[in-house]
Amino acid sequence: MTAGALTRVPAARRAPAVLTGALLLTAIAYPLTSDGAVRDVVSWAIVLLGSALSVVHAGVSRGPRTALGLLGLVAVVAVAFEAVGLATGYPYGTYTYSDQLGPTLAGVPFLVPLAWLMMAWPSWVLAARLARRRPARVLVAAYVFAGWDVLLDPQMVDAGYWTWAHPSPGLPGIDTVPLTNLAGWLLAGIVLMGLLDVLVDRTREPGSPHTGDAAPLVALAWMTLGGALAHVGWLGLPGSAAWGVALAVPVLAALGLHHRAARPGAGR
């Protein structure tokens, strides 16, 4: 697209691309930042940009009702799961947040539901591209959602944002996060994505999506695969990097098959 053509695109439709660009640049800055206070600011910026991207893209592509519903749904589900997790240790295991994450609601830092929002919409968008039927779509979205956390959680523990009381047993190569956390994220993902799928179906505007889904998909790809590169190259977390790539392989394979089947003349 030429610069002239880009200027003719309505500003609202350009917003997801602009937010994605800012998100990627900020994510690149994270592993290059060594000062703890500056890294905290970068972490906040990543989550704020990512959550804004989710809401803005949902509104531009599916309509304002979907965007508002997404914001409300994720906030409620995230706070509910996290508050129960903090109080009971179920379903993730026993963990505590540090004061670095700032203000809380029911013991849950405000940043946490925003991080869920950043992760939830791209996960659902990718699943919607891969699966036509709701049960499969929900399971794929939950898998992507939980896989993202497998990469993210060790990074956040390493930064001191939260700690696990009993980090073992964990995935091989990850000794700071228990397997119960993965099970909890899969459960939370299934609940959230099931509700989100119904929400989108009931609130989306006729004829949507009104714009493409490239922005959240690019953000998802960079935050997972680029994050894995940062883990092994700068953050000293090779185990989570390996798991991030391994969990992405089935999704990449499914995307390749989907693209091949969608090509003109495929199957002839």
Overview of this protein structure:
The chain contains 9 helices and 4 strands. The protein is mainly alpha-helical and 268 residues long. The chain has one domain. It has a two-stranded antiparallel sheet with strand order 1-4. Strands 2-3 form a two-stranded antiparallel sheet. β2 and β3 form a beta hairpin. The protein is globular and about 50 Å long. This is Carotenoid biosynthesis protein. InterPro entries: CruF-like (IPR007354).
The helix fraction, in percent, is: over 70%
Unreliable residue runs: 1-8
Strands ordered across the widest β-sheet = 1-4
Structural class of the secondary elements? mainly alpha
> Could you tell me the mean pLDDT?
93
Radius of gyration: 18 Å
Question: What's the total helix number?
Answer: 9
First-residue to last-residue Cα separation: 32 Å
Overall geometric form = globular
Helices and strands, in N-to-C order?
Answer: HHHHEEEHHEHHH
Q: Give the number of domains.
A: 1
Key terms for this structure?
single chain, 268 residues, mainly alpha, two-stranded antiparallel ribbon, 4 strands, 73% helix, disordered N terminus, membrane, Carotenoid biosynthesis protein, CruF-like, transmembrane
Q: How are the SSEs placed, and which strands pair?
A:
Blueprint lengths: L2 H6 L2 H22 L3 H27 L1 H25 L6 E3 L6 E2 L2 E2 L1 H20 L3 H25 L3 E3 L14 H25 L10 H20 L4 H25 L6
Antiparallel strand pairs: 1-4, 2-3
Q: What is this structure, in a nutshell?
A:
The protein has 268 residues and is mainly α. It is built from 9 helices and 4 strands, in the order H-H-H-H-E-E-E-H-H-E-H-H-H.
